[in-house]
Amino acid sequence: MEELAAAAGITPRTLRFYRERGLIPPPRREGRIAWYGPHHLARLRTIAALLERGHTLNGIADLAAAFESGRDVGEVLGLNEPTEEEPVRLHPEQLADYFGDQATAENFAASLDLGYLATDGEDLVHVSRRLLDVSAALVAQGVPLSAVLAAAREVRTHADALAELFTTVLTTHAAGQDPAALRPLAKSVVEAELSMALDRRLRASRDTTARPPGP
Length: 215
Prior knowledge:
It is built from 10 helices and 5 strands; from the N terminus they run H-H-E-E-H-H-H-E-H-H-E-E-H-H-H. It is mainly alpha-helical. The protein has 3 domains: 1-52, Multidrug-efflux Transporter Regulator, Chain: A, Domain 2, CATH 1.10.1660; 71-161, no CATH class; 162-209. The strands form 2 sheets. It has a 3-stranded antiparallel sheet with strand order 3-5-4. Strands 1-2 form a two-stranded antiparallel ribbon. Helix 1 packs across helix 3. It is elongated. The chain starts with a helix and ends in a 5-residue tail after the last helix.
């Protein structure tokens, strides 16, 4: 314990306190000997980084609990499954760099449940760099991360329905074709329709704003 505390730059008493609070996983025991490994040191450095970013110990404990209950990266990403998305490996404290004080345990748990985040040892993996960057950009524009994640859940529902629709069309009318050929065609249709829908919504919003108030 003393060696681990020294490597992390804390006192053994602080290390014992962290362990009692559940901030670090218990050591591996062989009889009366407790063994700490590199993952314990990594967790202690994460705690220090989160404290420097203004997180409280209670908040870090909640994050640790959500982290421990998170799905493994293999479960979320799948093994050897093709994807156009680029996963992003993160240390837990890097979430604060992206989302500031909105990197809360509640939002962390929601991201895990949605499948945006997965655990891989002491690291996190976000399933899509594009979605990570867009989420951070929306938060930077003042949209709460909780609202971003709630919208993402609705988008996921509609996206699954669209994927099922296009897959059914292909398997029904072009059964002999390569299913991979569906992806760019389906994406083009959805992108064009979404673009036109946004045009209609924005035009309606402008018309409402420009309309003079009634008597």
